[in-house]
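Practice problem: predict the structure.
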Amino acid sequence: MQEDYQHLDGHQVGGTNPSLVEALGAGCAIIVHDNPFNRWVANESALYFREVDRLSNFFSEQYIEDDYVEEKKSKAVLQFQKGFEWDDVLRSYEAILSMQQKSEAK
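Answer:
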């Protein structure tokens, strides 16, 4: 039996939301408020909403389509692998710190 996992998040401000990153890695169907922070984290893997009506339409129309939900779940895992696995995050920090160190040495 296949489990269904969803992550619904209404945060409207902030930065990188750790629970959203975890939900991506878990392969959840992501439903989040439409703001720059969430778009940066979830990219194409999420359904975005600004108003409650959008959520209502989603749950009554798109969300009942299994293929749509499975596509979003697959994209969530890919988005996590693309930008949030620890080895990649650490390499990015190392590159930034290395550039900073070089610019300070000049």
